[in-house]
Design brief:
The chain has a single domain, classed as Rossmann fold (3-Layer(aba) Sandwich), CATH 3.40.50. It is of the alpha/beta class. Helices cover 21% and strands 30% of the residues. The mean pLDDT is 92. The strands form 2 sheets. The protein has a 6-stranded mixed beta sheet, with helices on both faces. A 3-stranded antiparallel beta sheet has the order 1-9-8.
Length: 176
Amino acid sequence: MSHELPKVLIPENKIKQKIQDLATEIAFDYRGKEITAICVLKGSYVFFADLIRKIDLPLSCEFIGLSSYGDKTESSGEVKLTLDLTEPLQGRHVIIIEDIVDSGLTMQYLVNNLKARKPATLKVCTLLHKPDALQCELQLDYVGFKLGREFVVGYGLDYAGRFRNLPYIGILEHEH
Ligand code: IMP
C-alpha cells in the first residue's frame, strides 16, 4: 500500500470560502423557515459538519446511509440504503447535503425516495459535481465546484476507505 499523498486539486482555504458562500446563499433562500439538513453517509459528513455551522437559521440534522461503489472508482449504478432517517419529513423544508454527484444515480434514487415522504420542499446541495459524468436528469440547487471526470479523494471522500481525513480535495496520481 502506497503512502504517497494525493495531489492537491482544491486547497483547504478554497473549500472554506466556498462553504461560506453556499451557507450565505442557503440562509438567504430559507430566511424565516426551519431547515432539515440531511447528511448522506459516509462521504458528506465532513462537508455537512462545516456547512451547517455556517448556516445562520434554525436547523435540524438527519443522517442517511447510501452505498453504490464498493471499492471501485466507477458507479455500479446499484444503490443500497444502509441507514435510514429517524424522523418523518412530512411538511419539512429539506436540503440534501451531498459530497459529490458523479453519475447522479445515487442522488436520483435519494431524491425519489425522499419525495415519497412528502416534504414541503426538497433541494439538493452538493460540494462537487462532475457534469460530464451525469447519466440522468437531476436538479442540483447548490453546487460548490464543478469537476471533470477525475476521481477525487479527501475532505470526506474515500478511495477503498482511505483518505477521508485529508483536509483538502486531491487527485490520486498512481494506483494505491
Ligand atoms: P454517483 O451515483 O455516480 O453520482 O456517485 C455518488 C457517490 O459515489 C458519491 O456520493 C461518492 O460516495 C461516490 N463518488 C463518486 N465520485 C467520486 C470520486 O471522485 N471520489 C470519491 N467518491 C466518489
